[in-house]
Every structure is written in structure tokens, then in C-alpha cells.
Amino acid sequence: MLTESFGSAKSRRMLTNSFTVNGYTLDRVTEKAVQEVADVTISQEANSSKLKIKEESLSTPQNMDIIPPQNKAAEKPQDVYNLNDIITQEELEVLDEMANVFTFAKSENIRQWKTEQTYPSFILSCLELFPVKQEVRQPKCRLLCYMLQLMTVYKMKMPELRKRNCFPVEWPSLIQKKIFDSFTLQTPSTNRTMANISMPVKMRDRLLSHIIVLALFLNNFTVDLTNLQKDAKVGVQKMNTICRSLGCGMRNQKGRVGGVTAETRIIELTLPLKLPSNEYVPGKRSR
Prior knowledge:
Layout: H1 2-6, H2 9-16, E1 18-21, E2 24-27, H3 31-59, H4 89-93, H5 96-103, H6 107-116, H7 121-129, H8 134-154, H9 158-161, H10 173-183, E3 185-187, E4 196-198, H11 201-218, E5 222-224, H12 225-232, H13 236-245, E6 248-257, E7 260-269
Helix pairs in contact: 5-8, 6-7, 8-11, 11-13
């Protein structure tokens, strides 16, 4: 200021003890104190931001298993994964009533479902190959029913998932709880219509890995990925990463898709397991 540089001694003395901050005139004696308070405030805000980031990172289990436990000493493909790690016998039994639509389905039912696109193509392609004997067919239909539920959840958008009672009412409460506990993060919410739920990438990938393991069990551990990938709307890179992490070999094979000759991708769980050398790293959601 000109007064500070060139003013009279009296005017300089009047200026010496005052200055303005954000429209308020303060004594210069307090200038240092004000600056110290500002520094503390900035520091607290920075620490608060760091704490928030830390809390958010802790909210997602970093060591959560994406791939179900593997028996690397297994001598048969069916022994690599324990079905109980995917769904327990108790949980399967509560699906009996829902699975009846598949258990007692006739060829004409399946043709109609295909025409009307009632169920995903992969689900119907599995059902077509199931044995007719009920004692063998019923356990497979239970698994197929659960797989259909997981595929439904996998394709749900977050606004849908956050709605109260987002699952169909006919889904058993035990299954609803299992899906929420296994594949979502939940925090308390006072909103009556929306739940505070999230599905981080790692949990979504975990959901996909369980879907693929079920597909392996239902197809004698050799699966054509064409319909499954299309139904789940999964990108090629994402699907390849999960399949390799599960220990599956992959190959291309010519076949007929929708009456047209095309190249399909086949995965097969064979022994010894073909596990990738690098640990699984979750990536961005791919299309």
C-alpha cells in the first residue's frame, strides 16, 4: 500500500496495527494467530479426507476370496471345487418349489420358453441336456435355479439393487440373505425405499466366478461360453480372466449358433489345474 511505503509517521503507525482478512479488520498482533488457525484448519481437513479414504478402502474386504476354495490335489475335476462352498444342501432344499418348473418341464415347454425368451439361452441349453429321471434331474434343476438367480443379480444395476425388496417375492428369504451377504456390502439406512447397498468390482467378479463354477458342474466341466457370456453381458477380457483364475483351459471350436456355423469358445476344467502365475487383480467392469 502507498500509505505503508510513503505515508506520514502518524498514518503509518495507524496502519501498523491493523489489516483486513475476508472483509474483517484485525489487529496485526493477531495476524500470526489467524494464520496458525488457518494452517490447523487446512491440516484437519486434509487429515479428514485421508481418514475418509482409509475408511472407504476398509469397507471393501481387500482379502476377500474372488475364486472359491480350490483343491489343488484333486484327482478328478468334480473334486476341485466343493459345491458346499457355492451353496449348501439346506439352501438347495428351499429351492425345491421354485425348481419344479424346470424339473417337470417338457420339450414343448422349453421350445415355448425359447420363442418367448422367458429364460436366458444358457439356462435353457443346460435344461435340454438334463436326464429325464427325476431323482437325477431334480438336484440339477435346483442348481440351475440358483444359477438363474445369480445371473439375475449379476445383471442388475445399482439403482435396482438398492430398492427395498429388490428380489422377486418368490425367492426364498434364505437365498435372498445368502446373496446379499455373499455379494454385496450393506450399511444402515433410514431411507424407507432405498437400501444403502453396493457391489464393488471384486464382489461382482466373485459373483461371476460362482456362476461359472455352477455352469461347470451342470455341464460335466466343459462349457460353451457363447450363450453364457451373451446372457450375462460380460466382456471377453473379464470372462477370460475369471475362467483362467478358476483353472480352466480355453479353446476355440467351430459349431452352430442359431443355425449358423460360428466359432465358439469352450472352457474345460482339467487336471492338473492350469492356474495363472499372477494373482488375480480385479479390473474395471468390462462390456
